[in-house]
């Protein structure tokens, strides 16, 4: 969460890497009994489920995703929505025009089709809300480490992201169409 926004050239490369990860999962068996933190409706891929700037190592030209412990069944759309939020830096108080440019660069790198682009604005808001809700519920039930993360700023972060994304849904739609 603390890494600043990445430049659009790098975002296109990251988008392409995320696409490679998703495409590599096509055709793999997707188990029914695999608990994931934020389950997707009708999972059909095995996904990282936490593709974010805080799980990306940049070593010169080399890009490496870490923290695969949350991987499991999901969908391209659900996993991409989370990655788009993180890599486009769709967080509270961001400059809308700059955020739009980052989002477009990331999705251009991913080579997202029209169906994904049309579904993303609503799904990004749902995905940010789901993250906030997971943290809040974890805090209430004492489930760690997410319960502590909620009070350490992550809850406020994801609530702000949810509001920002939902408030600008039409801007995302225009940019992605």
Quick structural overview:
The chain has 177 residues and is mainly alpha-helical. The protein has helices at residues 8-25, 76-88, 96-110, 114-141, 146-167, 169-176; strands spanning 45-47, 56-59, 62-65, 72-74. It is built from six helices and four strands.
For the biggest sheet, the summary is: 2 strands, antiparallel
Q: Briefly note the CATH topology name.
A: Aminoglycoside 3'-phosphotransferase, Chain: A, domain 2
Low-confidence stretches: none
Strand order of the largest sheet: 1-4
Provide mean pLDDT, rounded.
Answer: 96
Overall morphology: globular
Order of helices and strands: HEEEEHHHHH
What structural category arises from helix and sheet content?
A: mainly alpha
Number of separate helices? 6
Radius of gyration, taken over Cα atoms and rounded to an integer in Å: 15 Å
Would you state the CATH class?
A: Alpha Beta
Distance between the termini: 28 Å
* Portion in strands: 5-15%
Q: How would you name the CATH homologous superfamily?
A: Aminoglycoside phosphotransferase (APH), C-terminal lobe
> Got a strand count?
4
CATH architecture: Alpha-Beta Complex
Number of domains: 1
Roughly how much helix do the residues carry, as a percent range?
A: 55-70%
Report on this model:
Helix content is 59%, strand content 8%. The protein is mainly alpha-helical. The strands form 2 sheets. A two-stranded antiparallel sheet has the order 1-4. The protein is globular. The two termini are 28 Å apart.
Question: How is the topology of this model organized?
Answer:
Blueprint: H1 8-25, E1 45-47, E2 56-59, E3 62-65, E4 72-74, H2 76-88, H3 96-110, H4 114-141, H5 146-167, H6 169-176
Antiparallel strand pairs: 1-4, 2-3
Helix pairs in contact: 1-2, 1-3, 2-3, 2-4, 3-6, 4-5, 4-6
């Amino acid at each position: 969460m603390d890494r600043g926004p990445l430049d659009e050239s790098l975002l296109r490369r990251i988008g392409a890497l995320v696409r490679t990860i998703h495409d590599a999962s096509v055709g793999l068996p997707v188990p029914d009994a695999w608990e994931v933190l934020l389950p997707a409706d009708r999972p059909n891929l095995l996904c990282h489920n936490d593709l974010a700037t805080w799980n990306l190592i940049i070593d010169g030209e080399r890009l490496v995703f870490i923290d695969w412990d949350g991987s499991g069944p999901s969908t391209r759309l659900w996993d991409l929505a989370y990655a788009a939020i993180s890599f486009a830096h769709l967080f509270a108080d961001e400059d809308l025009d700059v955020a739009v440019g980052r989002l477009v660069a990331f999705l251009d790198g991913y080579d997202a089709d029209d169906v994904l682009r049309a579904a993303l604005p609503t799904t990004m808001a749902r995905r940010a809300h789901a993250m906030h809700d997971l943290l809040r519920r974890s805090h209430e039930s004492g489930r760690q480490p997410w319960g502590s993360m909620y009070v350490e700023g992550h809850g406020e972060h994801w609530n702000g992201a949810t509001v920002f994304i939902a408030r600008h849904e039409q801007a995302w739609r225009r940019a992605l169409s």
